[in-house]
Write a structure and sequence with these properties.
It is a single chain. The chain contains twelve helices and twelve strands. By secondary structure, the protein is α+β, with helices and mostly antiparallel strands. The strands form three sheets. It has a five-stranded antiparallel beta sheet with strand order 4-5-8-6-7. Strands 9-10-11-12 form a four-stranded antiparallel beta sheet, sandwiched between helices. Strand 11 (254-263) and strand 12 (270-271) form a beta hairpin. The protein starts with a strand and ends in a 5-residue tail after the last helix. The relative contact order is 0.13. The chain binds flavin-adenine dinucleotide and iron/sulfur cluster. Residues 26-34, 36, 71, 98-99, 103, 106-108, 110-112, 114-115, 162-165, 211-212, 239 line the site of flavin-adenine dinucleotide (FAD).
Length: 330
């Protein structure tokens, strides 16, 4: 049992100040990641600053057709919001395919982006893990790494990023707005997630005490035709082995606009830019989809236990693109 202090913030400035002033302070939103990791002795905060009273639970439609989502909006509220379902089905689907109904009612959008990896060695405080204990080594490199990443890996860490909705947000060029000791910042979501490189313990560019306030998604007509496919070991309550967020607009049988991102395979939510470039202007058909998948996955660095992810991801990309481009508009 490790004692820690608990404080409930009533406004953003006091929340930020409290965490900033305590090197072992941390924000607490739904607690579905933070409390788990405290119980597992992976995180040892001295102060938890509860931010649930801050007015950051809105889901707002923007004039350009985009969305502004408060960091404390719950996954379930966002998934059901009319503007999300109608204009950004990929976000709604990604949320509903994550966790369980009970967890989605507790879990916040800001907390979802900051959730920690599910690597079992990270969560076992007795195993070497560069992310938990920098410099201690990576037990997954030669261990049980069936669920680990094949894209964006380093010789220090190969854990996948676990969020589903982050994959949809990366595909849609969302922007993470923050407020912290250094003022306000707008961080493109693709830059919000860092490659492990040599410093896997640093997952986000957030400063200590920097609070996510909102997530903005710019208007994107292409997203009206979008989909999130998730492949996993069981149908619910499970993280992705491979997932795909896809949106496309077809004009005269060719790909006029496309967004593609992958989950379950990258050390960060993976925007498939090579595949997107390969698809633009090409006929909307299986040959183009397979070529695009091949170009993206050519960068993969699989290990014997997770090599199956290359073929699974290839098939998942083809299926997602075929589904999203079927019907009207072809
Ligand atoms: C059994 C289980 C299954 C799950 N399955 C899935 C899944 O399939 N897909 C998926 O995407 N997720 C899944 N999750 C993860 C879940 O979505 C996250 O735990 C949740 O979204 C975290 O949100 P929270 O509000 O509970 O965050 P908390 O636990 O309160 O916080 C998480 C972290 O974020 C920080 N934080 C929280 N809010 C802010 C903020 N506004 N600004 C800065 N930092 C902040 C906290 O300090 C903490 O470090 C699962 C979780 C569990 C326990
Ligand atoms: S893959 Fe990353 S999180 Fe897992 S043991 Fe290695 S360093 Fe730790």
């Amino acid at each position: 049992m490790r004692p820690f202090r608990y404080a409930r913030a009533t406004d953003a400035d006091s929340a930020i100040a409290m965490v900033r002033d305590h090197c072992d302070g941390a924000f607490l939103a739904g607690g579905t990641t933070e409390i788990d990791l405290i119980r597992q002795d992976v995180l040892r905060p001295g102060l938890l600053v509860d931010i649930n009273d801050l007015p950051l639970s809105h889901v707002e439609d923007l004039p350009d057709g985009g969305l502004r989502i408060g960091a404390l909006a719950r996954m379930s509220e966002v998934a059901q919001a009319a503007g999300v379902v109608a204009r950004f089905p990929v976000i709604s689907q990604a949320l509903l395919l994550g966790a369980s109904a009970q967890l989605r009612n507790m879990a916040s959008m800001g907390g979802n982006l900051c959730q920690r990896v599910r690597c079992s060695y990270f969560r076992d405080a007795t195993s070497p893990c560069n992310k938990r204990d920098p410099g201690s080594g990576c037990a997954a490199l030669d261990g049980f790494n069936r669920g680990h990443a094949i894209l964006g890996t380093s010789d220090k860490c190969i854990a996948t990023h676990p969020s589903d909705v982050a994959v949809a947000l990366v595909a849609l060029d969302a922007v993470v707005h923050t407020r912290g000791p250094g003022g306000e910042r707008a961080i493109p979501v693709d830059d919000f997630f860092l490659h492990p490189g040599d410093i896997p313990e640093r997952e986000h560019p957030l400063d200590h005490g920097e609070l996510i306030t909102t997530i903005e998604i710019p208007g994107a007509p292409v997203a009206r035709r979008s989909i999130y496919l998730k492949f996993r070991d069981r149908e619910s309550y499970e993280f992705a082995l491979v997932s795909v967020a896809a949106a496309a607009r077809i004009q005269d049988g060719t790909v006029a606009d496309v967004r593609l991102a992958l989950g379950g395979v990258g050390t960060k939510p993976w925007r498939a830019r090579r595949a997107e470039r390969s698809l633009l202007g090409q006929p909307a058909g299986e040959a183009s989809f397979a070529r695009a998948a091949g170009q993206e996955l050519a960068m993969a660095t699989p290990r014997p236990l997770n090599a199956f992810k290359v073929e699974l991801a290839r098939r998942a990309i083809i299926r997602a693109l075929a589904t999203v481009t079927s019907g009207d508009g072809r």
